[in-house]
UniProtKB/TrEMBL annotation, chains A, B:
<feature type="binding site">
    <location>
        <begin position="65"/>
        <end position="72"/>
    </location>
    <ligand>
        <name>ATP</name>
    </ligand>
</feature>
<dbReference type="GO" id="GO:0005524">
    <property type="term" value="F:ATP binding"/>
</dbReference>
<keyword id="KW-0067">ATP-binding</keyword>
<protein>
    <recommendedName>
        <fullName>Formate--tetrahydrofolate ligase</fullName>
        <ecNumber>6.3.4.3</ecNumber>
    </recommendedName>
</protein>
<dbReference type="Pfam" id="PF01268">
    <property type="entry name" value="FTHFS"/>
</dbReference>
<comment type="similarity">
    <text>Belongs to the formate--tetrahydrofolate ligase family.</text>
</comment>
<dbReference type="InterPro" id="IPR027417">
    <property type="entry name" value="P-loop_NTPase"/>
</dbReference>
<dbReference type="GO" id="GO:0004329">
    <property type="term" value="F:formate-tetrahydrofolate ligase activity"/>
</dbReference>
<comment type="pathway">
    <text>One-carbon metabolism; tetrahydrofolate interconversion.</text>
</comment>
<keyword id="KW-0554">One-carbon metabolism</keyword>
<dbReference type="GO" id="GO:0035999">
    <property type="term" value="P:tetrahydrofolate interconversion"/>
</dbReference>
<dbReference type="InterPro" id="IPR020628">
    <property type="entry name" value="Formate_THF_ligase_CS"/>
</dbReference>
<keyword id="KW-0547">Nucleotide-binding</keyword>
<keyword id="KW-0436">Ligase</keyword>
<dbReference type="InterPro" id="IPR000559">
    <property type="entry name" value="Formate_THF_ligase"/>
</dbReference>
Length: 570, 570
């Protein structure tokens, strides 16, 4: 079989203006970025106000493993399959971060014959949204550090006279806003800044990868530009010497940050290998943030399609939970069906069992043991009142006996259906059966339920996520977390939602615990206020917000050849 | 009179595809970025290989003052004026840095009725080239720091086994490659990185503004993508423990950096207020780098226009000198005429005289004293064999007596002509007289001369710039600079050109010395190897490579209004 980039390049795709036209977007609503990408102006939403909305399908998965479950392949393949059976379907996915592209993970355009094309455009700058988020984020840091600098060198009277405003009295030990860069940059995790005469005061800082910026979550959750402006104004950048929050509005930088992100609020239209529309917009991480693409992209796609397929990060305990309890609450739009992606390899790995056999070989005991993880995710999704279709993402090494057993086992669960997806090798035709099952699932009567109401305490909300969302016995707060919780309540933010930042590699907090963890308390080590995004992040242990480059990093393979083409992008 | 952004917004401009068509670019050679911007594919150069080239006009100025001389206004106005008198003229200018846009300087789109439109597109992300430079630059830093990290934790044998390559033996005290961000970020000038367990080793680093990146100079000097790839491979990132240079090629990151900058190599087409083509490409600083827009943009524009107007940063001792001795040497294309921009205010300020009168008031003694600075710049340009036209950028407060005297004084110099430019208030018609004078100047027989040959020692080249370029008696090297010079010679780089990094605010090294400095030695404090760009930078005292935000920064005025329009961008 050809490599992803070879398939991407050998496929003759249509000019993006034709894709837009087919989707029902008018030329005046489109900003072309070359022939393969276009931004969609938000004015389209005014024009389409009266349109009925299509069905919303969310793609989630079992607990992730190092083998990759193929969630994006399945999302893109399902979109291709739905179009193949005569439904107008659009995919809505996140913009990949460039850091992992040059690190180890590679791109995020799907793969095989289920890809967004051209994959190198998706995986590199796209239309610049991540750069805009980085730039807006770092302007806020520059602003707060400049205030700190001028406040430290001037008396209150001088400061007022020269700046025309009151000093903010920033506490240099309480600067909450870090910096971001879209690279895997281990050595920037913790830094000391302001060194050298007249650059200070010296203080601690550090960089996260841009996908972990609160601004990325804001981009994904905003309904329009004015909403984004208000959210940016609410961002808490630091505390003053009295412990009071200093917002981006207080610093006077919220307007300029919004201006930097003005174009980023428009989703980018691309296409699948079979010419189906795909909206790429926002890329918040699913560990530290809510891990879902934008509300605006979903809204536009729903007005123009019979089916919208979107993807939530990691397993259903992570991105799907946050889709339901954070994104749906902001968008007002619940999903009509969910697809849980699984592979035989993932179940074997999730069994937690050691085996002498290669993971690609038939191994019924390990498969049967690992099935518990899939069942857990089916039940987890079902409790939201959303019909579940299991998609078995087939690999060439899968045996008929294994596949048959798995389909039979799923038939005993609460899942509405189960189909094998061959989208990677076969493209649209390999996903037609899955597409039919998804269509049927969305025709079921369903009633969406949030896991928790907003009008209970943060602690109660967190308890519900831990218990109903992960099967924990309860939660355990460190003294630091307890103190932060009190501080958050004192700020009047008790009514916000909760975003749990934990490992995606287990249903519980411990990545080593496979299968279905039982008899555990969820340990909360820290809270992080995301007043702009509109949630409080509860950190469970150490959560990585800045990846590092490995000793054999991906960038080494990437180059241009003598024909000026990109090579080595995976 | 309306503000710049009001004028920009009230002007009905043509779709950029029409501007491209008028210029002679085929649709297949264009990547649209919305309706107002487009990138031009380099394949246009192959198609136009046989075309004759137009005339190249370079716009420079007297020694800059805080009042602003209006060099971009004059460049854009002259382009408008040339088109108004029936010549096909294209402007080639640098992409403005976003840092100063949110800092104090404001944008760089020209002003009044001589602007590139839409000014907010030019001043913000444009088509993402600066972001691409930042990203490629910082990937190299991430790569070198990752190597350092893995080399420090692994034995040589482990490193080879895991990475598949030999360790580089990076000296952590000799990492020459810093980081960049496109913001005014004082607190990032000197930082300490790698802090905290398993992120290290801890070492010094710091950020420059992206315009100061060597990659920006490379972008401006490359002839095509393969040339850029070779230059990036030559970049020296660090020294090893034996003092030997470690290049981007050695680190294996040069290909990926080129891939990140693959689209950035295409110039961006915009238009003036009167619909004349304008190519925006690259933005190297004129203090630390060579301060001129790209060779590629000039090449394309020359093939398609009768006249190409381009601008060099700061006074003629800075950007113009580097245009001639660095850019022309790489492009092989000498200018046919130069415009020296002057204002009455600039001459008064350059007189160095104190006066009780307001700078806007008529003040013949101060004007006459300051004239020496203009005469110096005329003579400086003339020594390159390039005909000079003086453009007096008129302000409403200028008196007839002052203007008449100045025109008379210029007539006594070696300048070919002198005209008043009213482009700011009048647009194209205000620059027609200037345009006619420039056309005549380019019809003169002229013979371009470099200031120095490349095949003499770096010291001899530097001596010539100091003496013939600034009027110094000679140069004085600090012991550190002397040692670096020996090191550079030992690396076999003695044949490169010289880029002097000095203050633009005086012809000499001391910004306080106005008029024509005499009887001084040029003190060289440091050398910086720019092996990728292809020159050695000689630093004269401290040169700022990272601006700071003032106590009353520009970002405070910038916002979106209720109609989603940008306000406050100057």
């Amino acid at each position: 079989m050809l490599s992803d980039i070879e398939i991407s390049r050998q496929t003759k795709s249509s000019p993006i203006s034709e894709i837009a036209n087919k989707l029902g977007i008018e030329p005046s609503e489109l900003s072309l970025f070359g022939d393969t990408k276009a931004k969609i102006r938000l004015s389209v939403l005014d024009r389409l106000q009266g349109n009925l909305e299509g069905k919303l399908v969310i793609v989630t998965a079992v607990t992730p493993t190092p083998f990759g479950e193929g969630k994006t392949v399945t999302s893109i393949g399902l979109t291709q399959g739905l179009n193949a059976i005569g439904k107008r379907a659009t995919a809505c996915i996140r913009q990949p971060s460039m850091g992992p592209v040059f690190g180890i993970k590679g791109g995020a355009a799907g793969g095989g014959y289920a890809q967004v094309v051209p994959m190198e455009e998706l995986n590199l700058h796209l239309t610049g949204d991540i750069h805009a988020v980085s730039s807006a984020h770092n302007l806020a840091t520059a602003a707060i550090d400049a205030c700190l600098f001028h406040e430290s060198r001037l008396s209150r009277e001088e400061y007022i006279a020269q700046s025309g405003s009151e000093p903010l009295n920033i506490d240099p030990k309480q600067i909450l806003w870090r910096r971001v860069v879209d690279h895997n940059e281990r050595s920037l995790r913790n830094i000391s800044v302001g060194i050298g005469g007249n650059n200070g005061p010296v203080h601690d800082s550090g960089f996260d990868i841009t996908a972990a910026s609160e601004l990325m979550a804001i981009l994904a959750l905003s309904r329009d530009l004015q909403d984004m402006r208000r959210r940016i104004g609410r961002l808490i950048l630091a505390l003053d010497t009295q412990g009071k929050p200093i917002t981006a509005e207080d610093v006077g930088v919220a307007g300029a940050m919004t201006v930097i992100m003005r174009d980023a609020i428009e989703p980018t239209l691309m296409q699948t290998l079979t010419g189906d529309p795909c909206l790429i917009h926002a890329g918040p991480f699913a560990n530290i943030a809510h891990g879902n693409s934008s509300i605006i992209a979903d809204r536009i796609a729903l007005k123009l399609s019979d089916f919208v397929v979107t993807e939530a990060g990691f397993g259903s305990d992570m991105g799907f939970e946050k889709f339901c309890n954070i994104k749906v609450r902001e968008s007002g739009r619940a999903p009509d069906a969910a697809v849980v992606v699984v592979t035989l390899k993932a179940l074997k790995a999730n069994s937690g069992q050691e085996s002498a056999k290669d993971i690609n070989d038939q191994d019924m005991p390990r498969l049967q043991s690992g099935f518990a993880n899939l069942k857990w995710h089916i039940d987890n999704v079902s409790q939201y009142g959303v019909p579940v279709v299991v998609a078995i993402n087939r690999f060439p090494t899968d045996t008929q006996e294994e596949l048959q057993w798995l389909k039979g086992a799923v038939a005993e669960t609460s899942a509405f259906g189960c189909e094998i997806s061959d989208a990677f090798c076969e493209g649209a035709s390999g996903a037609e059966a899955l597409a039919r099952a998804v269509v049927s699932a969305t025709e079921q009567a369903s009633e969406f339920k949030f896991l928790y109401p907003l009008d209970v305490s943060l602690e109660a909300k967190l308890m519900t996520i831990a218990e109903a969302g992960y099967g924990a016995k309860g939660i355990a707060l460190t003294p630091e977390a307890r103190q932060q919780l009190n501080q958050i309540k004192a700020m009047g933010l008790d009514g916000l939602g909760i975003c749990v930042a934990k490992t995606p590699l287990s249903i519980c907090h411990d990545p080593k615990v496979k299968g279905i963890p039982t008899d555990f308390e969820l340990p909360i080590t820290q809270f992080k206020i995301n007043a702009g995004a509109g949630f409080i992040t509860a950190l469970v242990g150490k959560v990585m917000t800045m990846p590092g480059l490995s000793v054999r990093p991906g960038y080494r393979n990437i180059d241009i050849n003598q024909q000026d083409e990109i090579v080595g992008l995976a």
